[in-house]
Backbone:
């Protein structure tokens, strides 16, 4: 039946994945994909250190091709190497690196290894990370230690589909240490996120094309100074939206107080002279 063929295909892929990861241990192996082509079956190995897998003059990759052909019955297998762009965002590579450092430096430095690894993962652009070690650390009794940073989903569809999870082991003198790494990469759209869509009116206001756009400043008009003794007129600029400017009455020039006093003195002197002339004519 067709269902059995799919089950056998997935079973073969899992066996190849386990074999390649065990063969290429400490070589930065991430995961393996199996594709069927008209020329045969293609095996794509994703790794952070492609030079170690290829080997000198391709010896390692040629041996791996022969083993896959004989052990798993692949017809004309073609092995390709793909490099992982950012190894710090791959949980498999991070867990393998933690295991290698624990086996190299021992169980006394496990806290520094956990904190340093979590900082590197967050610096690489991850949204959240969680590292959990279980085993005889640092004493004879088994304990579980956890280091987490950032934002990490634990339940729901986002936790199942978006979080990269890997379980790995490290062999130490006290016993086997279990390593669990969870990494949540950035750029994931959450179901509870809200995005506000701007309307056309707000977009016009932002660009300055709407009715409330800024009006350009008016050019200043030149004013002429009137000569002395002439009546001064004030020119008023036309308001926007009107054709003719407003007309104003000319301002009258007021006489000074000294001139008014001198005119009054002359009038009083003339009146005195007229009175004296009339009195002399009467005598």
Residues:
């Amino acid at each position: 039946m067709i269902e059995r063929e799919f089950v056998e295909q997935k079973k073969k892929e899992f066996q190849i994945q386990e074999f390649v990861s065990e063969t290429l241990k400490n070589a930065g192996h991430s995961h393996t994909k199996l594709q069927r082509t008209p020329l045969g079956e293609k095996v794509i190995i994703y790794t952070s250190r492609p030079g170690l897998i290829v080997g000198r003059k391709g010896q390692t990759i040629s041996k791996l091709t022969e083993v896959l052909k004989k052990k798993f019955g692949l017809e004309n297998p073609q092995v390709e190497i793909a490099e992982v762009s950012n190894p710090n965002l791959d949980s498999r590579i991070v867990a393998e690196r933690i295991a290698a450092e624990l086996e190299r430096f021992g169980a006394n430095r496990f806290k520094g290894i956990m904190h340093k690894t979590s900082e590197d993962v967050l610096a690489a652009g991850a949204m959240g990370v969680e590292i959990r070690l279980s085993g005889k650390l640092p004493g004879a009794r088994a304990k579980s230690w956890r280091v987490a940073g950032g934002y990490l989903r634990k339940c729901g569809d986002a936790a199942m589909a978006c979080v990269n999870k890997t379980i790995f082991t490290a062999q130490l003198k006290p016993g086997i240490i279990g390593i669990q790494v969870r990494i949540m990469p950035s750029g994931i759209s959450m179901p509870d996120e809200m995005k506000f869509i701007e309307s056309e009116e707000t977009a016009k206001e932002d660009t300055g094309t709407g009715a409330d756009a800024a009006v350009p400043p008016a050019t200043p008009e030149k004013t002429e100074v009137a000569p002395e003794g002439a009546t001064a007129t004030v020119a008023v600029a036309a308001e926007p939206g009107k054709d003719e400017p407003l007309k104003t009455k000319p301002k009258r020039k007021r006489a000074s107080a000294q001139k008014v006093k001198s005119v009054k003195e002359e009038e009083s002197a003339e009146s005195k002279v007229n009175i004296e002339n009339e009195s002399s004519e009467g005598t």
